[in-house]
Amino acid sequence: MNDPKIFEVELNGQIVQVSDHTIKSARVYHIVYPNSKPPLNITIAEDSDGLKFWTSLPEGRQEEAEFAGKIIATYIREYRRNQSCVTTTDKKLPAPSLFD
Amino acid sequence: MCYYNGQKVTRTEFIRLKNLEKAVRNYNFLNVGVHNGFMFQPSAIAVANADKTDFDLTLGHWGYLPGVIKTHEAAQAFVRSYTTMNFKSENMFLNDKGQRSMWADAVNKGRRCLVLSTGIVENRHVQKIGKKGEPLKATDKYPYIVTLKDTEYFWFPGLYNQILDEETGELIYTFALGTTPANALMSQIHNSKMRMPTVLNEDLAYEWLMTDISKERAQSLARTQVPSSAMDFCTITKEYLTERVANPTTYDTLPPIDMAYLDTTEELIYPAA
Questions:
Q1: What CATH code is carried by the domain that includes residue B173?
Q2: How many CA atoms lie within 13 A of A74 on its CB side?
Q3: SS3 for A56?
Q4: Which pLDDT tens digit goes with each residue over B141-196?
Q5: Chain B contact for A15, CB < 8 A?
């Protein structure tokens, strides 16, 4: 599945540019805001109970990371779903998880 | 047990995230306004995976290094002696002296990449005028940023080589980007060299990176000229190198660019095909 490498999403009414990077085998999303707000890097981490969560790199912007992560995950799921629809017409596939 | 961003994580996960932080610190490359090749700083490149089903955006050092370079000292000595930031598309196989080109190995082995860009900065040279109105040999330089209409970013064809840094054990991408004869607009802006970076449209960029192509086709792609009418341009302040930002400005004494190319169909030597 080829996910988009660079795309735009809306966060709090602002269009932000997102790029997808693989760094040390981890998937990192780099978010650039249109104003002077510093760029945000987010990735998926796993808590001690094995549950996955979005987090900022470096630490300190957890709330922003969770908010942006959900929007980005939704965007990518929708992107994948639209790609799937091109080849699948007989039944709707379950939305693939970004955490897979 | 440790905490990362207020979340309870295992020690292993904590160490992984902390290591990732270090690696991410080097990933501010997409925010740099102006990359200066002579600073040899990392830039964003796209490299295909082995079976060419996907690609990764990664960091590469602008300035191609041959495989014999193994240490930082050797790399510094090389870049002081040779300028390998760009490759002339005409010289992908043979150099100007008719000998095997230093790019031939990368071309033959398919080490092609794409270099991400949002604009090209070049200096226009304008002859100085003496006190009596006579033209002088010296020139004034006026920097321009050239962008592509209707697109925020675009791709240059690149050739890369991976160098094993024996001091850190890391494999480092080094790359050069392809150039071609200047079009009507770039001939006026980059008037000292009359060259321009090759800009690939999306289809050609895909072909360059993701398909197996002949050497001849690779050269054909690497010399593709983008038409002047597809470009926008603007003068910027001369501090672009130190501030690393392209700030638009105007120069009152600078003669305007001849934009007659907008009124005719530009005849390119190597149009996209």
A1: 3.90.1680.10
A2: 10
A3: strand
A4: 999 999 999 887 889 999 999 988 777 777 889 999 999 999 999 999 999 999 99
A5: no
Which two structure tokens, joined as six digits, stand for B207? Answer: 């072909």
| Nearest-by-Cβ selection for B20 from A6, A20, A24 | A24
Single-letter residue type at B184: A
What's the half-sphere exposure (Cβ side, CA atoms, 13 Å) at B17? 26
* Domain segments of chain A as ranges: 6-86
| B253 within domain boundaries | yes
Residue A63 belongs to what H/E stretch? helix A62-87
B27–A41 C-beta distance less than 8 A: yes
Whole-prediction pTM value? 0.68
DSSP B97: T
Residue B56 to chain A, least CA–CA distance (Å): 7
Q: Please tell me the distance from the alpha carbon of residue B94 to that of residue B149, in angstroms, as a whole number.
A: 34
Q: pLDDT-derived band of residue B62, with 50, 70 and 90 as boundaries?
A: confident
Inter-residue contact A63 to A54 (CB < 8 Å): no
Most confident of B2-6, B33-37, B106-110, B162-166: B106-110
d(CA B20, CA A57): 8
Residues of chain B in contact with residue A56, where contact means CB-CB under 8 angstroms, are 5
Measured between alpha carbons, how far is B196 from B183 in angstroms, rounded to an integer? 8
In this predicted structure, what is the pLDDT of residue A19?
85
User: Structural domain of residue B189, as residue ranges?
Assistant: 7-262
Residue A86: how many other CB atoms lie within 10 Å: 7
Number of domains in chain B: 1
A40-63 pLDDT tens trace: 999 999 999 999 999 999 899 999
Phi/psi of residue B213, each to 5°?
A: -120, 160
| Helices within chain B (DSSP H only) | 11-25, 72-81, 104-108, 184-189, 202-210, 215-222, 240-243
Mutate which: B1, B2, B7, vs A, most A CBs within 10 A: B7
User: In this structure, what token pair is assigned to residue B186?
Assistant: 């770039």
ipTM of the complex: 0.78
Task: Write the pLDDT tens digit of every residue in B95-117.
Answer: 999 999 999 999 999 999 999 88
Residues on chain B touching A42 (C-beta within 8 angstroms): none
